Every structure is written in C-alpha cells, then in structure tokens.
Amino acid sequence: MRVNFRSRTALVLTISAAISALTILAINVAPHSSSAAAPQSSSAARSALPTQSYADVVDRVAPAVVTIHAARRGRAPQTPDFMNDPMFRQFFGNPNRATPRGGQAPKETALGSGVIVSADGHIITNHHVVDGAEEISVDLNDRRHFDAKLIGSDSLSDLAVLKIEASNLPVLSLGDSDKVRVGDICLAVGNPLGIGETVTMGIISAKGRSTDPDRTNFEDFLQTDAAINQGNSGGALVNTQGELIGINSQIASTSGGGNIGIGFAIPSNMARNVMDQLTKNGKVSRGRLGVGIQDITPELAKSFNVKDVRGVLVSSVDAGGPAEKAGIKVEDIILQVNGMRTDDANSLRNRVAASSPGSDIAITVLRDGHEQQLHAKLTELKEDTEAPASEGGGGKESGGGQLGVSVETHRGGGVTITDVVPGSAAAEAGLQPDDVILEVNHQAVKSGADLREGVKNSGSRPTLLLVSRNGKSSFIAVQAK
C-alpha cells in the first residue's frame, strides 16, 4: 500500500512526540538518588584528568629561595670650588644639599636572589650580586630579615656562598644536572626587578653553553626559555621534582636587560663543587693541564685529515707542565678525559678545572690516526695576571699574497702580520694585524718566503696556520683565493 509522504511525515512526528513525552515523564518520576548521581560522576571524571599545575612543586621550592640586598658606598660627588661662590649659588642653589652629612657618598644597592642549601643558614648566589658589597642582607620567604656574612666568592664561576644566623631553615636539595635533558620542563624562582618572589616556567633549551668568547671564565650553562630578568640572578632553576638543577645567572637580550627567552643557569653539579670548596676553604682550587686548546672545525678536520668533527685540538703545550710530562703534543686531538667525551674546548676546560690539583686523569688522544691512552698529574691553576709580550722587529716583507696579508720577520720566530687586505681569505678566516704565524702546514715559518711556499704547496686544500695572538696559540685553516 502506498503511503502519502506528508502522511508518513506526520506519523513519524507523532511517534517522536510521544517518545519525548514518555522520556520527560520518566525523568520526573525517577528517584532522587539518580539525579544526584550525575554530578558525582562528572566530578569523578574531572578528578581523573591529569593535573596541569606545578603548585605542589612551588610550595616545596619557594620557601628556600630568598631575596638578597647588597650595598656599598659609591664615590662621593666632587664639587668644583667655583660652585661655592655666592654668585653661582644664587642661580644654581647649594650643591652640597645632595651630599650626605660628613661628605659620605650615597649607598649603591644591588638586588638579587639566592637559594638556601643548608638548614643552618648557608645560601648560594651569584658572585656578581655581592661583588664589592660592604653590607649584605637577606629577606626570607616568610618575611624574616637577616644580615648575611660572605663565606667566599668565586668570580671565575660567578658563584658565592653566604651565611645567616638561623636554624631549621627550609632547604632546596641539589639535583644531578648531568642527567638534565634538553626538552625537560623547568621552573625559575627568584625576585625579578624587585617586584617579589616570582615563578616562571619553560624548558631546558640547550646544555653546555658559554657566553664568554675569551674563555677567561668557567661556564657550562643550562640554557632555558623560562623568563629570567634582573633580580633573578642567584635564584633557583628547578625540575618538576623540586630539585635544584641550576643557579640562574645571565640572560641574552637585545633590549638591554629584558627577557627574550634566552636565559642561562650554572648547572648544579658545578655549583656543588664550588660551594663545597668555598664553604670549607673560602676559595676554589682548580686543576691545570697546561695546554692551549681549540675546537675542531670542518676546515681543521679536513686539514688534519680526520673524518669526525669532534674532540679538542691541542695548539700549544706548556714547557714542563703536566701535559708535556704526560706526552701530549701539539696537533694531538683530545677525545676523552677519564672516559668521558670532550667534544669541545669548553667541556675539556671545565672537566680539568673540576679535578683537584695533584689528581691523576686519564686522557685519550688521537695522533696520526691512532688513539693513545695517556695519564697526567694535574697541577693547580693560577690566574694569569699578565699575557706574554710579543717581540716585534725585523724588516717588512711580502708574504702570503694569496692569503691577503703582509708580514715581517718576528724575533721570537715566525712572521708577524702587519696588514690584512679587507675581504681577503685571511680577513674571512679572522687573521688580524700583530698575529704571529708560527707554522704553515705543520712546517715552521721563518720568513715571508716560507709562508708563500707553504700556501703554494697547499694547492686546493685549506692552508693550515699555527697562529699566536696575545701569547696564545691556535690553528686557523685558510682557504686561499
């Protein structure tokens, strides 16, 4: 039987209306307990969701992070004698009003953060926060205020240890920064810009960073995009377990101090070593190997005929030093120290410096394509106060024309660069006037003629130069044009 479309539609709507009415009736007559079950199950579902909060971590960490005030006297302003003339004072007023009584200079105050590392009041912070301070005070998270004593400070690592007279203080435990991985979530805690204790979140962006191009300091920074600003210095960088993995120290900024997501923290393992020495001895002793070193670049790897761009190239060996006694030679490539890889010069410096003077270390070197195991007994590193002076002299002569340099003979051996042609191969490689070229392609250079011959014999390969600058030697590969 055929059913009219409109009739069929009317029938369906009638049935649907009846079902809806029955449903409403069923809801209205349902027991009270059933209606209460809905919100309970919804609440249970919400509680089953993974938490997105770090509040529990912050509750544990925040009480151990403090604010540090460091004050010192600035230089008293000098008032010219003519400003005491009544005529000048008529127009400019009394210049001595701004000067405190007794001629004392006003105080200069630095603000930073710190981390309590012992229940009896030891606090770790940055050296630059307390450097030169005459008065240091600490504000705790619970608003208590203490005067602090400087136990020790180390400029080369930018770390310092303070002590306040207190007990049963909250403590932040140190984690193992070697286990930190790039991509790990981290929290930065401190007092940025003096606005009060603040927590920011980010990730570990990189490891093993150094911001010192001259490598006069010891740096092995953890890089993070957790917001760090002025005042955060010396504060805590923690993992999601609430362990201290770094001491916030620096930022990179294009705006003169504002955060752009590139912050640096001193790893906790370096901080632990420095802190222990400062606490026990008031100073830091570091091991010395006695070598000049540099990173392997692709150009240097090609010049030394090695396949892998890894390891640390030895560019000089101190006479009578631990390295020479161990048998290390110029052009050796150091691959490992105590079984741990040294992929760059910064990691090697830090590893040696972290070893105690007098300790023995095992060194793996690559020499003539073969690995060798050597052992060195470290001496103590002393801060150099004066770079060796270079001796000039000798007549000017041409040399290295394809490199784009002019040279003159050097009394101490080699040739001194007197001029570098802009845009030349030498300029692109970073050679500078007053650099002393000691070797070309592993051969000693005594004149401009030696340099020219060495460049000529390089053919299409880069020319390998051993260059001394400010008393420090390094290899430079130059592709002649």
Question: Could you characterize what this model shows?
Answer:
The chain has a 7-stranded antiparallel beta sheet with strand order 5-4-1-2-3-7-6. The chain has helices spanning 5-28, 32-48, 55-61, 86-92, 127-130, 268-281, 298-303, 322-326, 345-353, 425-429, 448-458; strands spanning 65-73, 107-116, 122-125, 135-139, 145-147, 149-154, 159-163, 185-190, 198-209, 221-224, 236-238, 244-251, 263-267, 287-288, 291-295, 312-317, 333-337, 340-341, 360-367, 370-377, 379-380, 396-398, 405-409, 415-420, 436-440, 443-444, 463-469, 472-478. The protein is elongated and about 75 Å long. The longest helix is centred in the N-terminal third of the chain and has 24 residues, at 5-28. It folds into 4 domains: 64-163, Trypsin-like serine proteases (Thrombin, subunit H, Beta Barrel); 177-281, Beta Barrel (Thrombin, subunit H), CATH 2.40.10.10; 287-380, PDZ domain (Pdz3 Domain, Roll); 396-478, PDZ domain (Pdz3 Domain). It is of the alpha+beta class and 481 residues long. Helices cover 23% and strands 32% of the residues. Mean pLDDT is 82; it is low at 1-39, 87-93 and 385-398. The chain contains 11 helices and 28 strands.
